[in-house]
Amino acid sequence: MPYINQVCRRSIEKQETTPNVPGTLNYAITKIIHNYIKDNGLCYNNLNEVIGVLECAKQEFYRAVAAPYEDIKRKENGSVSELDKEKSDE
User: Digits of tens for pLDDT over the chain (90 positions)?
Assistant: First the structure.
């Protein structure tokens, strides 16, 4: 949830600290989105744009960061079953 206390909010907004737990990360992202909507207007098009950007950011993060990490862990620890086993695992 982005509903963190006021001290944490001010610290993140002034960029004195960076998000270090899920709640503060959620707050930072939510604050950026709210500012975008305040600056550009609350309408379907802008809401749709934000949702699209979040989805693309999620997918890019997964592709560039999470998937390579999972590949490393699969090689270190082995596949779950034959379904996710790559030829290079053999």
Answer: 899 999 999 999 999 999 999 999 999 999 999 999 999 999 999 999 999 999 999 999 999 999 999 999 999 999 999 998 876 555
Domain ranges within the chain, ordered by starting residue: 6-77
> CB atoms < 10 A from the CB of 27, how many?
20
Q: Report the chain's terminal Cα–Cα distance, integer Å.
A: 43
Q: Which amino acid is at 39?
A: D
Cα separation values, 55 from 1, 12, 36, 52, Å? 18, 23, 16, 5
Which pair of tokens denotes residue 32? Answer: 């950026």
Single-letter amino acid code for the residue at 61: F
Enter the pTM of the model: 0.83
